## 1
Amino acid sequence: MKDESTLVVVAYHSGYGHTARLAESVRAGAASVDGTKAEPVSVDGITEEEWALLDAADAIVFGSPTYMGSASPEFHTFARDSVKRWQLQAWDGKLAAGFSNSGSKSGDKLHTLEYMALLAAQHGMLWVSLGLVSGWNSSTSDENALNRLGVWLGAAAASNIDEGPELMHDSDLRTAEHLGRRVAEQARRRHGVEMARALYEMKGDRTDERT
Ligand SMILES: Cc1cc2nc3c(=O)[nH]c(=O)nc-3n(C[C@H](O)[C@H](O)[C@H](O)COP(=O)(O)O)c2cc1C
C-alpha cells in the first residue's frame, strides 16, 4: 500500500523574488494540512532529482511571474521539457493548480493562469481552482480581503514594480497560502478514497480465500 502522506510540489520560477515569496506561502499552506509533505522546486535549472519529486507528487502547483502577458521564458522552458512526461502521460490524474504575480493589478496574469491550466490539461492533470469569492468588489470590502484581485482560476498577486518582495501585499500572500491548503486538502481527500478502495479490495481478496 502507498505511503500514508501525500506530496504537494510547488514548481515555480521567479526572476526578482516576488513569485518565490508566493511559492513559499503556497508551500506553507499545503504543509499545514495533516499528512501532507510540501516541497518547493525552482524550475530554473531543475535537476533530475527534482523531476523525480514532481513524478512522485500527488499534486503540482505551478507558479510564474507574468512577463509580457504570459509565463516567464524560464517557466516555458520547464513546460517544454515536461514533454518527456507528456509522452508517457506520466502525470495523468495528479492534481494541479497555479499562481502568478505581476506588476499591474490585472497585468494580463489571467492569461498566465490559463496557460498553466492548459499545460495541466495536456498532462491529463485535474485542475483545482482557488475556491474563494471576489474579496474587494463592494463599498464595504477592502483590499485586505482574501482574493482582493478577484481571480478564480488560481492565486493572483500584484507587486509594485519599484518595490522588493519584502513589501508584497499580505492579502496576496494569504491568498496563496489558501490555495496551497486547498490543494493539499483535495489531495488528502483523494488519498482517503484510494486507501478505502485498497482496503476494500484486500477485504474482497480475503473473502475469496474463504469461499
Ligand atoms: C520582461 C518583463 C515583462 C513584464 N511583463 C508584465 C506584464 O505583462 N504585466 C504586468 O503586470 N507586469 C509585468 N512585468 C512586471 C512583473 O510581473 C513584476 O515585476 C513581478 O513582480 C515580477 O515577479 P518576480 O519577482 O517573481 O520575477 C514584467 C516584468 C518584466 C521584467
Note: Residues 170-210 form the longest helix (41 residues).
## 2
Amino acid sequence: MSHRRILTSLAGLAAAALAVPTFAAASPAPAPAAPSVSTSATRAAYTGSAQDQAATKAFYDAVMKSAQAKRAKAGNAAAAVTVTYAVDAPTFRNQINSSTSIWNSSVDNVTLVEGSSYDFYYTEGNDPRGSYASTDGHGRGYIFLDYAQSQQYDPLRITAHETGHVLGLPDHYSGPCSELMSGGGPGPSCTNAYPDANERARVDQLWANGIASAAKAAYSK
Ligand SMILES: [Zn+2]
C-alpha cells in the first residue's frame, strides 16, 4: 500500500503533502495532490455532469503534453504513437491489464504501454465522489479508481471508461450501455467494457496523424 492510500484517510495538509505514490519516488515530478483535495470542478467523474468536460480536457492535455515532450526528446516524430502509464492501483491490476488489451485490440493508431517513463498513472482509494480522471497540482494526469464505486458498478467498465478519456473521448452519460463513454449513465447493471464502433472510429480518427494532431482535435467540436 502506498503512502497516499494510507494517508488519504487522514485529514489535513500534512497528510496531503506526504502523499507520494511509491512508484513516483524516483520521478522528477513533485508529489501529486491527494484526490481528497480535488473539487468537482477539477475532475471528470464516472458518474457526473457534462460540466466535467473541462476537467477531462485538462487531464487529456496533461497526458498529451507529457507524450509529446518524450517524442520531441527522442527526436523521432515517425515513431509509433504510444501513451505510457504507471500503475499504483494494485486492487485493479487485472482490470487495468484487461482495459489495455481491450483498447489496444480496438484501435489501430495509438497503443497503451505500461512503463516507468509514464505519461499518466492509475491510483486507487476511497472517495465519496467515485472514480475520475484528473490532473494533480503539477500537471500530471491520473486516473483515480474508487473502491466503493467499483463494488456497485463493474470495475472493468469503470477502468476502460476512464482510459477512454486518455485516448480523447469525452463523457456521454445519456448514451446506451453499448457505449463505453456513457459511464455510469445506464446504471450499475451495465457491464459492457468495450468501446462501440463509433467510439473506436473516433479514437482512430483523432490519432490518425500522430500526437500533435490528436492533442489539438480531441474535445473540440
Ligand atoms: Zn468519464
Note: The beta strands are 43-45, 82-88, 111-114, 120-125, 132-135, 141-146.
## 3
Amino acid sequence: MVSFASFVGLLFLVGFARCANDTNSSAINITGNAFFNSATGERFYIRGVDYQPGGSSNLTDPLASPTICRRDIPVFQELGINTIRVYTVDNSLDHQECMEMLQHAGIYLILDVNTPDSSISRSNPNCSYNTDYLQSIFATVDAFANYDNVLGFFAGNEVINQVNNTYTAPYVKSVVRDMKRYIRTRGYRRIPVGYSAADISSNRQLVAEYFNCGDDADARIDMFGVNDYSWCGRSSFQVSGYSTKMQIYQDYSVPIFLSEFGCNEVPSSRPFTEIGSIYSSRMSSVFSGGLVYEYSNEDNRYGLVQIESETEVTRLPDFYNLKYEYGNTSNPSGGGGYSTSNDHSSCPDYDAGTWEANNTIPEMPSAASAYFRSGAGAAQGTGFLTQDSCYNDASDNDDDSSSSSSSSSSSSSSSSSTSSAASSSGISSSSATPSSSSSSSRESSSSSRGSAAVLETPLFFQIICEMFNMMF
Ligand SMILES: *[C@@H]1O[C@H](CO)[C@@H](O)[C@H](O)[C@H]1NC(C)=O
Ligand SMILES: *[C@@H]1O[C@H](CO)[C@@H](O)[C@H](O)[C@H]1NC(C)=O
Ligand SMILES: *[C@@H]1O[C@H](CO)[C@@H](O)[C@H](O)[C@H]1NC(C)=O
Ligand SMILES: *[C@@H]1O[C@H](CO)[C@@H](O)[C@H](O)[C@H]1NC(C)=O
Ligand SMILES: *[C@@H]1O[C@H](CO)[C@@H](O)[C@H](O)[C@H]1NC(C)=O
Ligand SMILES: *[C@@H]1O[C@H](CO)[C@@H](O)[C@H](O)[C@H]1NC(C)=O
Ligand SMILES: *[C@@H]1O[C@H](CO)[C@@H](O)[C@H](O)[C@H]1NC(C)=O
Ligand SMILES: *[C@@H]1O[C@H](CO)[C@@H](O)[C@H](O)[C@H]1NC(C)=O
C-alpha cells in the first residue's frame, strides 16, 4: 500500500527532479569578468534584444501585459535569444504572468530601474538624487527581485551622453551603491547592478574606470553595458573598432556586454554580421554578448518586427537576418578565455572639461534609510515625478521616520519635470545613441488572432514546480 504521504513525497521528488533540471530559469552568477548559469556552471553569453514596444512617446510596460507577452515571447524564441532588456516598467503593476512566461521560455531580463519622471536629471543631478527617487527605484527592485530570471538591473542608461555632462557620474555611482546595499539589506539574491554607457570617445574609458573603481565595493558596478553602434553593415573586427575596444577593456574586472548594438546606417536591411565576431573567441575573453537595438520598429527604424496589433507582429528582413546569424554562430567552447585575475580599476582624476566627477560620491539622503528597514512600500508607478523632490527632503527635516507612504503625497508637490531636464531613462529624449532618440508608436490595428498559449511545461509539472518553489 502506498500511503498518501508517500504519494505526496513522490510528487515532490518528481517535482524536485523536474524543477532542478529546469536550468533555463536558474539564476545567472558572476565570476571574474563573466556570467555563468548557476545550475549548470556553463558560461552565459547574452543573446538579446532591447525591448520597449511603443518607444518613449507611448510608454507602456510590456511586462505587465500577458497579451503582449504571449504575442512576443514565441517570437523571441524563434529568434533564438536568451535575454531582453526593458528600459522602463511601471512598478505598481503586476508582472508575475509575464515573468513566468519568460522564465519558462529560458529568457532573462535586464531591467533599467528608472522612468523618464523618476531618474537622475542632467540639469540638476543633486536635486534629482532624493528620497522619493530612491523610493521609486527601490520599489522597482522589490517588484522584480524575487524572479530568478532577472539577470541584472541597470542603475542608469546614458546619463553621461555628452562630453560636457560627466558631472552627473557621482550621482549615478551613488545610485549603484544604494541599490546594491538595498538588495543585500533586504535579503534578496545578489542581483547584479550595472550601468549602460553611451559611446563617447572622449570619456569612453573614463566612464568604464570610474564606475568600477574605489575602495567601496558597494559603489562599484557588477557589470558594464556599452551602447555601441560602431559596426555598420558588412564591417569587420578591425574596421568596426571592436579590436580597439578589446584593448581598452582587456583588464576590466567585471562582465562587459553590448547593451545596445545594431547600426542602421545601411542601404537596406541590417546583415548583423557582427554576431559572428561578438560570439567568437576573439571577443569572449572580454565581452559576454549583447543586445540588439531593438525589437519593435519605431520612428527611428531600428526594428526587427513591426507591431501590427496587441496580438500580431510582422517579422521584418532584419529579423530573418539576425535569426540566421544567431543560428549559424555558436558560443566559444569552455570558459571562452574569461578572467578572474583582473583587479578593479583605478579612479580617474578630476579633470576640468574632460572628467568632472569627484571620487567622493554623495551620501544617500538620510530619510531613505527607512526603506532599508521596512522596504520601499507602495509603488507609485511611472507618473511619479521625483526630479525636483529635493525640496521635500529639505523641508522634511526628518529622522528616518518617514515612510514610503509619504512619497505619494510628495509627488504632487513636485513641479513638472521639464523634458529639457534629460533623464537617465533609456528612452529619454536627448542622448547620444538611438535608444534615446524619441520614437513614436503607431496605432494598433485590430486583429483577428487570439492569444496562443506558450507554456510548454505541462500543467502538472508547473504546479509541482510552483509548490516546490514556494517551499524553498
Ligand atoms: C536534464 O534535461 C536534459 C535534457 O533537457 C537531460 O538530457 C538530462 O538528462 C536531464 N538531467 C536530469 C538530472 O534529469
Ligand atoms: C550563485 O547562484 C546561487 C543560486 O542563485 C546562489 O545561491 C549563490 O550564492 C551564487 N553565488 C555567487 C558567488 O553569487
Ligand atoms: C529551455 O529553453 C529552450 C530554448 O529556449 C527551450 O527549447 C526549452 O523548451 C526550454 N526548456 C524548459 C524546460 O523550459
Ligand atoms: C553641453 O553641450 C551641448 C552641445 O553640445 C549643449 O547643448 C549643452 O547645453 C551643454 N550642456 C552644458 C551643461 O553645458
Ligand atoms: C556560418 O558561419 C561560418 C563562420 O563561423 C561561415 O564560414 C559560414 O560561411 C557561415 N555559413 C553560411 C551559410 O553563411
Ligand atoms: C571633490 O571632493 C573633495 C573632497 O574629497 C572636495 O574637497 C572637492 O571640492 C570636490 N571637488 C569638486 C569639484 O566637487
Ligand atoms: C545637494 O542637495 C542636498 C539636499 O538635497 C544639499 O544638502 C546639498 O548641499 C546639495 N549639494 C550640492 C553640492 O549642491
Ligand atoms: C499606446 O500603446 C497602447 C498599447 O500598445 C495602445 O493601446 C495605444 O493606442 C497607444 N497610443 C498611441 C497614442 O499610440
Note: Residues 126, 390, 393-394 surround 2-acetamido-2-deoxy-beta-D-glucopyranose (ligand 7) (CB under 6 Å).
